[in-house]
Amino acid sequence: MISSIRIKFIIIKIFFNIRMYIIILCYYIGTIMNILIINKNILFYFIKTSYNINHLILIFLLSVPSYAEEVMKISSMDAVNMALKYSLESKNAKYQEEIKKLYKDRSWNIFVPNVGFSSNISRQNPFMSNARGEHWHLGLGVSAELSISPSVVNKMRLASFNYDGVVIDRERVNRDIKLNVLKIYNELLAFKSIVDVLKEQLDKGKLKFEQVSIAYDNGLISEIDYLDSKLKYNKLQPNLDEQIIKFEEIKSKFRLLIGLDVLQDFEVVGELSDDILDFSFFNEIVDVYEDLEIRKLNNFVKIMQTTLDSLWLDAFLPSLSLSMSYNPGNISFGSGFSGLGQQGFHFVFGLTYSLTEILPFSKSFTEIWKQDYQLKMLKDQIDNKMREFKSKVVQKRKNMRLYKSILDNSKMTLEISKKNYQIAFDAFNAGTIDLIKLNDIELSYKQSDLQLIKDKLNYANLVLEYKDLINKLD
């Protein structure tokens, strides 16, 4: 592959040659103008304009990004890492985790008292009989208050459970991204193989049609055989173009997924694997509680159970309140100035107990019963989700066994089709079968080749889905 720097030097050389040709052409035009007594300023303007346009075109071509000339090779793991880095869903999940971590790490701040400073100015009524000369008072004070409910520890636990929930959410997002990237990567490998097969078929078809045309011109084959070969050859290029269009559409989708520039060309590495998964893998014990959806629901159970416990504690236990204030004194001023007065500390310790909330028809009891029913519903949902998970595992295993049989049969069919085509080709050369029969056998051989690629893709993606289901995708 020619480097981008060498290409640029070639472009520069070409355009300088073009400029010289333009100047020479203008010289001859000028000679004609002299003969026709035309103003030479027109000639100079033409040369100058051509020179500037030439440089503008040159600058434009050289300003094309060099990465558009290079093909980036991307492995499957590179693609996964790029998608996790540039995905908006992955970034949002990370930010949500950071937010919940912030709340978790600072959940102890409920024990921090509310500290405040206060000041006020008041005026004494001068018309009162016992009023003195001072009519204005400036009051200052510092206070600290702390209120602790019986469920204060549970609130800290809730912050931890909420953080665990977003950790599970982020893991689910990243796993979905990884699964999607790997499946599309397999599609790219499959389309790459399909395009290569169709290109090879087009080259062979062109060579074969040229031979058929020569044979037809020499009267060795009939017009029907010639037209049949021409019809089949004419279908090869549209079929190839159709697959190339689909290939480019998937590549565009893949660029957006992994964060590549729309102009950046790339190439996937490797081939679509047809390795059969070891079925002893099915004998491994699958921990149903490791399923992300079930983990998420179990975390909800912890949150709801903790909330229910908090409702019970707040309803039947008193809340504690502590407050302390310090008053440095009041400053009185008016007709004269007086010093500080009413100085000192003030402490308050209180217990608050609501008798209404322990009644069966109270608001707290209503919330308790509601939370209890919702907790039962959630546990039933978990049981149902566990049954669904087990059913999915069993069904995926059945599908993989079926697709293994399909893949094995597809490999066998391709081998038979290849052998059959070789025998038919020899028979055609020997004159025992006609060209139409050979074309039909060749078409079956091509279809078997393409079908094997599709079966490989289906099986490979099914393996990815099964590994993702049992949390073995890594």
UniProtKB/TrEMBL annotation:
Molecular function via GO: efflux transmembrane transporter activity; porin activity
Listed transmembrane segments: 20-39
Protein name listed in UniProt: Outer membrane protein tolC
Main location: membrane
GO cellular component entries: cell outer membrane; efflux pump complex
Record keywords, A-Z: Cell outer membrane, Membrane, Transmembrane, Transmembrane beta strand, Transmembrane helix, Transport
Naturally occurring in which organism (per UniProt): Borrelia crocidurae DOU
Similarity comment: family membership: Belongs to the outer membrane factor (OMF) (TC 1.B.17) family.
Location within or outside the cell: Cell outer membrane
Any Pfam family matching the protein: OEP
Domain of life, source organism: Bacteria
InterPro entries noted in UniProt: OMP_efflux, TolC-like
